Amino acid sequence: MYRGRRLRKNKEIRALVRENHVRMDDLIYPIFVQEGEGICAPIESMPGQFQYSIDQLPPLLDEMKKYGVRACLLFGIPAHKDACGSQAYAPEGIIQKAVRAIKAYDPELYVITDVCMCEYTDHGHCGILDEEGVVLNDTTLTYLAKIALSHVEAGADMVAPSDMMDGRVEAIRQVLDENGFADVPILSYAAKYASQFYGPFRDAAHSAPSFSDRKSYQMDPANGKEALREIEADIQEGADAIIIKPAMCYLDILQAAKERFDVPFCVYNVSGEYSMLMQAILNGWLKEEVIEETLVSFKRAGASMIITYFALMEGKRQYAQKQSRPL
Ligand code: PBG
């Protein structure tokens, strides 16, 4: 008889046969940076997460270092929005200033920037609109390339375009190469679904569209094969690594993509996924171990990298575990 229980008998043997591990090296922590001073504002719909002004970042960066968070993904909340999102590529824009400040404080922290326009446009869409309110793909590409270049000039280690315009990876690769940044990788949100799970993020980043929705550029949650076409196109355009977003409901996409393409994959464990688990933990309905279970499921499905609001908590958990069980 097959006796699977032999290898589950005690924690020692379970540790020996464990197939997947969540390492702090895999995790990327999203940070919301806001224009202003003295701001460390709790985000109501994302318990435990904050919007920070640049001067308030050092204590956070110290904690991240202590607990082993080595990479972050930056989102900016500008003071001023307009039709073409000019603060997204301004040399003194919030992200450009934040990247410089973070790199000056901790040059070893790997800084990834989200390249998109929705936080910066007064209409909240991820690109430039025509008179009818349609997002203009090819016009938007010029802006995205400008935004990416300005982030990299400020010192970003990697750029992550999240707008879902066609051709943006090629446009960004070209502008980076032409400006002496051939060594800066692109982490493309290749398969990004039009998801309700972004709700809390849009509160946090003030980026909800003021009319209509994002369904003409983000993908239909009903589609799987389409994600493979998106990923293939982005790899051909020069993407170095690929994001699948959201994570929890989309692990089939990750697994299929992983089988087909030989690039590093990243999942984005998005705001709504964070908030529903976190609120259930705070209410006592779920135990905190649910975080580890969630994160390891991403590894099992094939993720190399995980963007998650749980990164710092997970760092604290692993730190405490090491203290209680020194090597
Ligand atoms: C910007 C962007 C969004 C997220 C990441 N980049 C919002 C959106 O597309 O509406 C969502 C992240 C999250 O929910 O945690 N386009």
From TrEMBL:
The active site is at K192, K245. Pathway: Porphyrin-containing compound metabolism; protoporphyrin-IX biosynthesis; coproporphyrinogen-III from 5-aminolevulinate: step 1/4. It is an enzyme of class 4 (lyase). Zn(2+) binds at C116, C118, C126. 5-aminolevulinate 2 binds at S271, Y309. SMART domains: ALAD. 5-aminolevulinate 1 binds at R202, R214. The keyword Metal-binding applies. GO terms for biological process: protoporphyrinogen IX biosynthetic process. It catalyses: 2 5-aminolevulinate = porphobilinogen + 2 H2O + H(+). Its cofactor is Zn(2+). Pfam families: ALAD. GO terms for molecular function: porphobilinogen synthase activity; zinc ion binding. The keyword Manganese does not apply. Mg(2+) binds at E230. Homooctamer. Belongs to the ALAD family. This is Delta-aminolevulinic acid dehydratase. The lineage of its organism: Bacteria, Bacillati, Bacillota, Erysipelotrichia, Erysipelotrichales.
